[in-house]
Specification:
Layout (H helix, E strand, L loop, with lengths): L4 E3 L5 E3 L7 H5 L2 H8 L3 H28 L4 H18 L7 E2 L5 H32 L3 H4 L4 H18 L1 H5 L11 H11 L5 H20 L5 H16 L6 H5 L16 H33 L5 H17 L6 E2 L1 H9 L6 H21 L4 H15 L2 H10 L1 H16 L2 H23 L1 E4 L3 E3 L10 E3 L2 H5 L3 E7 L4 H12 L7 E8 L5 H16 L3 E5 L3 H9 L8 E3 L2 H9 L7 E2 L5 E2 L1
Helix pairs in contact: 3-4, 3-11, 3-15, 3-16, 3-17, 4-14, 4-16, 5-13, 5-14, 7-17, 7-18, 7-19, 7-20, 10-11, 10-17, 13-14, 13-15, 18-19, 19-20, 22-23
Length: 591
């Protein structure tokens, strides 16, 4: 049978099972692919315009995310400039835009609180190393297996935490003590500090939200976030409003990149931040690959997941060397890049260059940006992150999906983001196993049996020969579905209940696409019992892979014999045909 044709990861087309991607095909940056295809001056102009558009969006976002993460706004810009450039230079997606992401706010803020900025930089660098290793181990494919309810749950949980973290600056509240990190204590402290709310800050935040939301509806192509921040800064400067600004809290933003330097390292520090590094790497891998998938859906292209992980790893190492925070692919900025007409990774590289230019030119003006306006930006980001429609749909879909969703959501908010992802993934895996096990069954004397695939390649089902099941001396079982550990106990119990008065029984594997070691071991026990009781066991319709697994676990003559079809096995039992040699895993005779 001809192999199915699919698009390979490097944009070519191949045959399933006939082409193993080379190292170069898996890890060559998309930038090289774009240049090989031909890159014209028109492509450069399109990428420059797209890069400028994304930079305008990324400028206030990078500062806002950094401030919300507990570090200075300059570190957010370092992340976007260095990390964003490396992701586009080395990445496996044509359109991915890298930078600081809202999803990291919770983790970064907690790490800064526990380990300080030095610990954050070390954890960021270590997460980069872990991502590079994961990419070269080709783990990118498995990261895509995160269940959808888990991604919706932790994204919605992050949105709630981001929203709560911005309430202080949104209302200009002054707290006597440090703002708590946990949600309930945070809300309690903010409620006690509500009388200190600053009306000017509230007005600027409300104005910023109105501008962002209004321009998105009326002028969707305009940079609403940047316009809102600029308008708020102008009002603050012109009216000398008594609100906290980037200048009053941080002294402004730097006008140049710092010199690269290694973070402070020691064995004790490495051990202390290692859990944070794992959390950064896990979330960074999920977030970046989700962003790349979104870009694929918008453009019809395919990204190289493992190459993307390697790029994300080097980008995090580079960001940490220059004092930046965690960097990952960002869905909103990547989508903006695509909509702006980007042709390839050059747009992402130029976006970083434009941000650096903005730092050099506009640094003095950034001092007047009120924190209330940046908080408003993140409130809008959190609202868009929440995926409310998807959340409600999953709640209504099934009890299993709702359980996974709510468990992930609740643990993300009240416990820990990493714990929420891991528990949600575990629950999703158990739910999948249960559903797959329910689809696996054993049929005894059913009206339909799959014919031999060698004779009927279309897999057509034809009426079962009633003489096969009516024979008192022969029992015919047919297993349907994946035969794996989730179903092995149930199926093994059915097969184990062999009637002592039967001379032989046949187990048909024609409808079994997969068999694992647990199921093969269960079949081994059935074969051993049949042999002890003097019952002849025939296995029919097994694919080469299934046969190989059975033979490996001792399901072989004289305990069991392999035949191509049920009819042929029954004929051998009746002695109506000359006994044939058993079929081995390779299709050769088994002794």
């Amino acid at each position: 049978m001809m192999g199915m044709s699919i698009a390979s990861d490097n944009g070519t087309r191949g045959r399933v099972g006939h082409h193993e991607p080379t190292f170069a095909e898996l890890y060559s940056p998309k930038l090289l692919t774009v240049f090989r295809e031909g890159y014209s001056l028109g492509d450069l102009r399109a990428d420059a315009l797209a890069g400028l558009t994304v930079a305008i969006v990324a400028l206030p976002l990078s500062m806002a995310i950094a401030i919300a993460s507990g570090v200075s706004p300059g570190r957010g810009l370092y992340t976007a400039v260095i990390g964003g450039f490396l992701i586009s230079l080395l990445g496996g997606s044509r359109f991915q835009i890298g930078g600081p992401a809202g999803a990291f706010i919770v983790l970064v803020a907690a790490t800064v609180d526990r380990q300080g900025v030095d610990g954050l930089l070390l954890a960021t660098m270590m997460s980069g190393v872990l991502l590079v290793i994961a990419g070269y181990l080709r783990l990118g494919t498995y990261i895509k297996f995160i269940p959808y309810p888990v991604t919706v749950g932790f994204t919605a949980g992050i949105a709630v935490i981001i929203f709560a973290s911005q309430l202080k600056d949104l209302f200009g509240i002054t707290l006597a003590a440090k703002e708590p990190g946990e949600l309930i204590p945070k809300l309690t402290a903010l409620a006690h500090g509500a009388p200190t709310a600053n009306l000017s800050a509230v007005a600027l935040a409300a104005l910023s939200i109105v501008i962002i939301v209004g321009l998105k509806r009326l002028r969707p192509t305009w940079p609403g976030i940047l316009i809102a921040v600029v308008v708020a800064a102008v009002f603050t400067f012109a009216l000398q409003l008594p609100v906290e600004t980037i200048g009053t809290k941080f002294g402004g933003i730097p006008r140049e990149l710092p010199a690269p330097a290694l973070p402070v390292m020691s064995l004790a520090k490495i051990q202390a931040v290692f859990p944070d590094a794992i959390a950064f790497a896990l979330l960074g891998a999920i977030e970046s690959l989700l962003s790349a998938v979104v870009a694929d859906g918008m453009t019809g292209r395919r990204h190289r997941s493992n190459c993307e992980l390697v790029a994300q790893g080097f980008a995090n190492v580079g960001s940490a060397l220059f004092g930046g925070i965690c960097v990952t692919g960002t869905i909103a900025r990547t989508a903006t890049n695509v909509r702006a007409g980007a042709r390839g990774p050059v747009s992402g590289m130029l976006h970083s260059v434009f941000l650096l230019v903005f730092m050099l030119i506009a640094a003095p003006l950034a001092s007047y940006i009120p924190l209330a306006a940046l908080a408003a930006v993140l409130v809008v980001v959190a609202w868009n992150m929440a995926e409310r429609h998807e959340f409600a749909t999953l709640i209504r879909s099934s009890w299993g999906d709702a359980t996974v969703l709510l468990a992930t959501f609740g643990l993300t908010i009240f416990r820990d983001l990493t714990e929420g992802i891991l528990v949600g993934f575990a629950l999703g895996a158990v739910l999948f196993i249960n559903r797959m096990a329910q689809m696996t069954g054993v049929e005894d004397g059913t009206p339909l049996v799959a014919k031999d695939r060698a004779d009927f390649e279309d897999g057509a089902r034809v009426p079962y020969n009633p003489k096969l099941s009516a024979d008192k001396d022969v029992l015919v079982y047919r297993i349907t579905g994946a035969f794996f550990f989730g179903a092995a106990s149930t199926v093994g119990t059915v097969l184990d209940s062999i009637a002592d008065r039967r001379k032989a029984f046949v187990v048909d594997f024609a409808a079994v696409p997969f068999l694992d070691s647990t199921a093969a071991n269960a079949m081994s026990r059935v074969a051993a019992k049949a042999r002890r009781q003097g019952i002849r066991l025939f296995i029919t319709g097994a694919s080469p892979t299934v046969r190989r697994a059975l033979l490996t676990h001792g399901v072989r003559p004289p305990s069991a014999r392999f035949r191509e079809t049920i009819e042929r096995a029954v004929a051998d039992i009746k002695g109506k045909e000359t006994p044939q040699e058993d079929i081995s895993a390779d299709g050769l005779a088994a002794s």
